[in-house]
Specification:
The structure holds two protein chains of two kinds. Chain A has 14 helices and two strands; from the N terminus they run αααββααααααααααα. Chain A has helices at residues 5-9, 36-52, 55-80, 91-112, 114-124, 128-133, 138-145, 152-165, 174-199, 201-204, 211-218, 231-240, 248-254, 261-286, and strands spanning 85-86, 89-90. Chain B starts with a helix and ends in a 6-residue tail after the last helix. The chains are: A mainly alpha, B mainly alpha. The A-B interface holds A 1, 56-57, 59-61, 63-65, 67-68, 70-71, 74-75, 78-79, 81-83, 85-87, 207-208, 210-211, 213-214, 217-218, 220-221, 224, 228-230, 233 and B 19, 21-22, 25, 28-29, 32-33, 35-36, 39-40, 43-44, 46-48, 51-52, 86, 171-172, 174-179, 181-182, 185-186, 191-192, 196-198.
Chain lengths: 294, 264
């Protein structure tokens, strides 16, 4: 549990080497950031350094999360060793859909892990006071505070699943290749938007903060073809908890299904719209924050 | 021994009741996953009559029971022990006038008992009325299933306790905790029906202790075996439970000798 001293006092991340005019504090302090973006990057780098100080812990966490995500592969392989398809969806098709969902979910966990800490750490224990004293967006600060690089391997796992599925799928067009990153990123926004929306509840009802866990749990539905579910559930996953937009609608386009083209076309709008709306509401909800005073 | 069990049990019940909101959340999360696997398996059986030798109702009941009872046996003793160690509070635990191993078992049993009443049984009833979970037809199945559940908890606890002890030596349990979750998820039957594994792997998986956690109670509940043959898996469960318990006690002694209490 002891941080290795090398990574804490090692070469600093800033652009200026120590001892230059900006180095007010000596000891490698890189001086004030030149831009807002530079400040965010430096904040993120600081958090990454704190996390990477415990190398062994970091590696174990990464491996553990990867293993848990890998259960799905064992399940899919064993299921499809007995059946050729589920309601007309083949193994490579489900693998591709699952891979897209895994990439978006993995990136979501890298960037938005802070949502899980919001209630307990910031609202009940009152660390929001500290966040509000700084001249930076509070939501961003909380997310960067919990920047979770351990889950990057899950993103790689998702990409590997997509790669594994490709030989069994019809070839993609150039436009499809170019749009793939956009769909994956907007999938992250759908998930982040929905959970940010539910995290606002923490400002209204004080609880120990596992409520968004239930909503997150429901996002597991995004890895299955929508049409295998009963109709009310399909509506729920499209209009109420729009998890079908995370991976299924875009993936259906790649898999040559035409029923959900509209869903695929509006997916980026849904992602951006939902996230922007949720962020705005979160900002409104923040006004109701009362410090616990301890 | 009896007072240790009694105080532990009472403490476990009190702690579990103190976090009623968490019980509600657990209930909701578990039902979301149950709904997901019910939908998936219903879709799978729409195009075929059997998968891996199981028919639709049998497989769906197996999957639901195997998953829902995780709310009962799912022990977090490994994380608790690791946290006590990390914060140095393990020193206080060792000062208390009871056997740490037995006390921890009784406390987790109390936790499981509350979970049984607040989560597992309501979920099973819900699955029975909404998702077509078939209740057992034979009367003897109920006591056998109840006994099997108790043993599945003992195996789950025994394994979690060992993981907790390992964290005394490794100083860090996070990775191990994940590893434990993965092993249980893959090999217990809770997330993947064990009959899905291709043959040599399936037989190997049935030799591991994890199958006693979800697979055995699930095949007993779905009445795959007649009474006399049902005693076999139950006996295997009992042996694994005893083995893990004894191993836990044995390794605890060694771990305490090597224990370094962290200041705080």
């Amino acid at each position: 549990m002891r941080p290795s001293s090398r990574s804490v006092h090692g070469p600093s991340f800033g652009r200026r080497p120590a001892g230059q005019p900006g180095d007010t504090f000596g000891s490698g302090y890189p001086g004030p950031a030149r831009s807002r973006l530079g400040l965010w990057l430096r904040y993120a780098a600081m958090r990454a350094k704190v996390r990477l100080a415990y190398r062994g812990d970091f590696a174990l966490h990464a491996l553990g999360d990867l293993l848990v995500a890998g259960i799905a592969i064992v399940f899919l392989v064993s299921l499809f060793s007995h059946i050729p398809h589920i309601r007309g969806w083949s193994f490579p098709e489900i693998l591709f859909l699952w891979g897209m969902g895994e990439v978006s979910t993995g990136l979501f966990f890298v960037l938005f892990q802070g949502l899980w800490a919001l209630n307990q750490q910031y609202l009940l224990r009152g660390e929001m006071d500290r966040v509000l004293l700084r001249p930076l967006d509070p939501y961003g600060q909380i997310m960067v505070d919990h920047l979770n690089l351990e889950d990057l391997p899950i993103v790689l796992l998702g990409l590997a699943m997509i790669g594994w599925a490709l030989p069994g799928l019809p070839a993609f067009s150039l436009a499809q290749w170019l749009l793939l990153p956009l769909f994956l990123l907007c999938g992250v926004l759908v998930l982040a938007g929905t959970l940010t929306l539910f995290s606002c509840l923490g400002f209204l009802i004080h609880h120990r903060g596992t409520a968004i866990g239930v909503v997150y749990q429901a996002s597991a539905f995004n890895r299955y073809p929508l049409d295998i579910f009963p109709r009310p559930l399909q509506r729920l996953l499209t209009f109420v908890l729009p998890f079908a937009f995370i991976a299924f609608f875009p993936a259906s386009w790649y898999l040559g299904r035409t029923e959900w083209l509209l869903g695929a076309a509006v997916q980026p709008l849904v992602g951006v719209g939902l996230f922007v709306g949720a962020r705005w509401l979160w900002g409104r909800a923040l006004r109701r924050y009362r410090s616990p005073g301890s | 021994m009896i007072p240790t069990l009694r105080t532990g049990l009472a403490l476990g019940v009190k702690l579990a009741l103190a976090y009623r909101f968490e019980a509600l959340v657990q209930l909701l999360s578990a039902s979301v996953v149950a709904l997901l696997s019910w939908s998936l398996w219903t879709a799978v059986f729409r195009d075929r009559a059997t998968v891996a030798g199981q028919d639709g109702p049998g497989m769906i009941s197996y999957v639901l029971v195997a998953w829902l009872i995780t709310t009962f046996y799912g022990s977090r003793v490994d994380q608790e022990l690791a946290a006590r160690f990390r914060e140095g509070l393990i020193a206080v635990d060792l000062l208390r006038p009871w056997d740490l191993h037995l006390h921890t078992y009784a406390r987790d049993l109390g936790r499981a008992g509350v979970a049984l009443l607040l989560s597992t049984i309501p979920l099973l009833l819900l699955a029975g009325s909404l998702l077509g979970l078939k209740p057992p037809e034979q009367l003897w199945t109920w006591p056998v299933f109840a006994l099997s559940l108790l043993l599945s908890h003992a195996i789950g606890f025994g394994f979690a306790f060992l993981v907790g002890l390992a964290s005394f030596r490794l100083r860090n349990a996070a990775g191990l905790t994940h590893l434990k979750a993965t092993l249980i998820g893959v090999f217990s039957g809770s997330l993947i029906p064990l009959d899905l594994f291709p043959e040599p792997i399936r037989s190997l998986v049935l030799l591991l202790p994890f199958q006693g956690m979800s697979h055995t109670p699930a095949i007993l509940f779905t009445e795959r075996l007649p009474f006399v043959q049902a005693m076999g898996p139950l006996l295997v469960q009992l042996l694994w439970a005893l083995a893990l318990m004894l191993l836990g006690r044995f390794l605890l002694r060694g771990a305490l000798r090597a224990l370094v209490v962290q200041g705080g």
